[in-house]
């Protein structure tokens, strides 16, 4: 398994090890969670933002800060993952933490990793 695959697995482990305290417990939050569809504009936005944050970070790291491409991939992926996680933690304050949104984020980061890898 190449290093990109290892980082993807790390992201998955991080996602599913988020403490239950981040998840909503109230009735109104449960109703909102039930309405959290897999196929929704929100998921496309999470995918796209994560993809572009990863690619943008990678561009800056490689072209502006002269970091080696393969060493910059985990950094740019972490930046994007952190931004998505921070967004969901913020959403938890007003509604609920969406695992589906985090999965869409990870899918966007994974697509970016595929694009960023050197052949």
Provide a concise account of the structure shown.
The chain is 76% helix and 0% strand. The chain has 119 residues and is mainly α.
Description of the molecule:
- With 119 residues, this protein is mainly alpha-helical.
- The protein is built from 5 helices and no strands.
- The model has no long low-confidence stretch (mean pLDDT 83).
Structural class: mainly alpha
What distance lies between the first and last C-alpha atoms, to the nearest angstrom?
15 Å
Oligomer class: single chain
Rg to the nearest angstrom? Answer: 15 Å
Uncertain segments are none
Strand content: under 5%
Number of helices: 5
Tell the overall outline: elongated
Average pLDDT reading: 83
Could you give the count of β-strands?
0
Topology (elements, then pairings):
Elements: H1 3-16, H2 27-34, H3 41-64, H4 69-94, H5 99-116
Helix pairs in contact: 1-5, 3-4, 3-5, 4-5
